Amino acid sequence: MNSMKSTWKVGVASAALVGLAGCGMHQNPPPPVAAAIVAEKPGSVVEQSVVTIAARVVKVDQKKRIVTLRDADGKVFDINVGEQVKNLPQVKKGDDVVATYYESIAITVRKPGEATPGVETADTVGRAKPGEKPGGLAASQTTVTATVVGISKKKGTVTLKGPRGKVVTVTPRDPKRLDEVKVGDLVEAVYTEALAISVEKPEKK
User: Fold this and answer.
1) How far apart are CA 113 and CA 163, in angstroms?
2) Which helix (H) or strand (E) covers residue 9, if one does?
3) Are the beta carbons of 56 and 96 closer than 8 angstroms?
4) What is the residue extent of each domain of the chain?
5) For a tag site, which of 48, 163, 165, 187 has the least CB within 10 Å?
6) Which own/partner contact pairs does 155-160 have at CB distance under 8 Å and 24+ positions apart?
């Protein structure tokens, strides 16, 4: 998934490191776990990917607000934590971080009048109360609705015109999907990504 979206969306991670309880790990962080699901029905398809990754806090620079983490492969990387994270002082060396990254895209064919070309974006951030162990959830959803302006069953492509006038030609994974699309139809794509992070001190042996 594009290198776990550049180390599980570092930018989103810094916003999400803000409140939830997690699962402590006894030894080294386990390797990433990934799962993918594709669901289809006439006129729509939904593709989902979920990746869970664990890391351990190596260092915390409270002044610069930088948390250094090490994953199961021994890779060390930094996360810049924004000022919106009030509980950074609660994060200590040796704490375990568990992050679950979710990504999905749902594509639906709409008939004229059922939708309007455009772009909509919605963001959600959940955070902890001061003093609670950091963790949290950051989610973003973008909906793009474009108009079908051309179809080539010979080439297996469909040409779309976006809400800002940009024209692009795409190739569906399954050419049979073109049988359900006509020029003038609308294609609605809903892209969702979410990142949940929990932090907890490792349990004492």
Assistant:
1) 15
2) helix 2-16
3) yes
4) 2-200
5) 165
6) 158/187, 160/187
